[in-house]
Amino acid sequence: MKKVLIVAQTIPQWYVDLLTEAIGEQAKVEIITGSKVEGTVIPSPPYDATSFKTKLLCWWRHFRFMQKWLKRNRRKHYDLIFAVSNPPINSYIGLKLKKAFHAPFIYMNWDLYPQYIEYMIQNTAVMGVCKLWHLWNSGNYPGIDRMLTIGEVVAESMNRDLKKKIPVRVIPIAADTDRLKPIPKAENPFCAEHDLTDKFVVMYSGKMGYGHNIEIILRAAQRLREQEQIRFVFIGDGPKYAIVEEFRRKHDLRNILLLPLQPEETFPLSMASGDVGIVSQEARMAHLFMPSKTYSMMACGMGIIGICSNDDDLKRMITKHRVGVCIQGDDERVLAEKIMELYRDRDTLEEYKKQAVRAAETRYSKKVITERYKKVFQRYLEL
């Protein structure tokens, strides 16, 4: 029986399930991770995303753990190494595992480093470190047997900083279309609980991080405070959660509902409460990632308003599938106008919603994405 080793300091259960299904029953899968997931798990130091300092500390602990683990387990046999870019040091660790076990190495590059750091922390010392990091990536990446990432623009951005371009295969993030579906508000307990049944819901759900332009949504909500039928719902966590809380309190905005991340059983109901889903990005960082929440919103039948740059994966996806509208810049008046347009023009919004569900089911469902991973794994495992 073939053996596959997955290395990811943090990994969600849905991704473990997807990879395991794609690899198939003819191979045994072991997972080195700090996440509490089901499967044959080799526990490693857990991940703490509280701050950049805690992330660095976790990355170092993961690196030291992997060094010791490899030293103890060199006599093991694996037919394939699969690693995820959390932490980004896994590109290097994967190459060490490839050499030790004489196995091909596949790397899913979710997050681009050091590019993310360059845009977050701009000073001379950091830029010097990042320059060396780019050189390090230029040396490491060509040795990876198959580089994967989540979007075309992300792939282009990755290659832009390498000395020599490498082939990159794009496999988008999957939407759980079996679990996430449109639900009429009158039949949705979440809507009843939070007085949303007869409201036009503008949804922001997920990470409230530094790479997400939350402030423009708050200012748009302030402009639309007199529109009693429009409710802005923020659900999630992250460093900007407190900003939303303080802004709502300071301006006494009763059209904003702020909730923490919802339990797993509530998540499909909360997501299905939205009419419009806002996916916001900081323009200068938008080329570095593709927000996964977009696919979940589409599966639940929301029209999408993307706060985009001139060219990023979010904008390309919205335009290609005609699932909503894109805006650029930081002008809340433009955002407020787009929300009002969709509030008044329900025919256009309904078309966006239908297109969103169709695209989620036919292009981004777990079934479709699993098949794409399966083709990659079959090549290297020869199953």
- The sequence of SSEs as H and E is EHEEHEHEHHEHEHEHEHEHEHEHEHHH
CATH fold topology of the largest domain: Rossmann fold
Give the % helix. Answer: 40-55%
The whole-angstrom Rg is 22 Å
Find the count of extended strands (DSSP E, 2+ residues). Answer: 13
Shape: globular
CATH architecture of the largest domain: 3-Layer(aba) Sandwich
- How many domain modules? 2
Which strands sit side by side, in order, in the main sheet?
Answer: 3-2-1-4-5-6-7
**Main pleated sheet:** 7 strands, parallel
- The quaternary structure here is single chain
CATH-defined superfamily of the largest domain: Glycogen Phosphorylase B
Number of helices: 15
Structural class: alpha/beta
Q: Which residues sit in consecutive blocks of at least 5 with pLDDT less than 50?
A: none
Gap between N and C termini, in Å? 10 Å
Provide the CATH top-level class of the largest domain. Alpha Beta
Proportion of residues in extended strands = 15-25%
Q: Can you give the mean pLDDT?
A: 94
Walk me through this protein's architecture.
The strands form two sheets. Strands 3-2-1-4-5-6-7 form a seven-stranded parallel sheet, with helices on both faces. It has helices spanning 13-23, 52-72, 90-101, 115-120, 124-140, 152-160, 189-193, 214-223, 241-250, 267-271, 293-299, 313-321, 332-344, 346-363, 366-381, and strands spanning 2-7, 27-33, 40-43, 80-84, 105-108, 146-149, 168-170, 200-207, 230-237, 256-259, 276-280, 303-308, 324-328. Helix 8 (214-223) links the parallel strand 8 (200-207) and strand 9 (230-237). 42% of the residues are buried. 44% of the residues lie in helices and 18% in strands. The protein has 383 residues and is of the alpha/beta class. The protein contains 15 helices and 13 strands. It has two domains: 2-174 and 365-381, Glycogen Phosphorylase B (Rossmann fold, 3-Layer(aba) Sandwich); 185-363, Rossmann fold (3-Layer(aba) Sandwich), CATH 3.40.50.2000. The mean pLDDT is 94. The termini are close together.
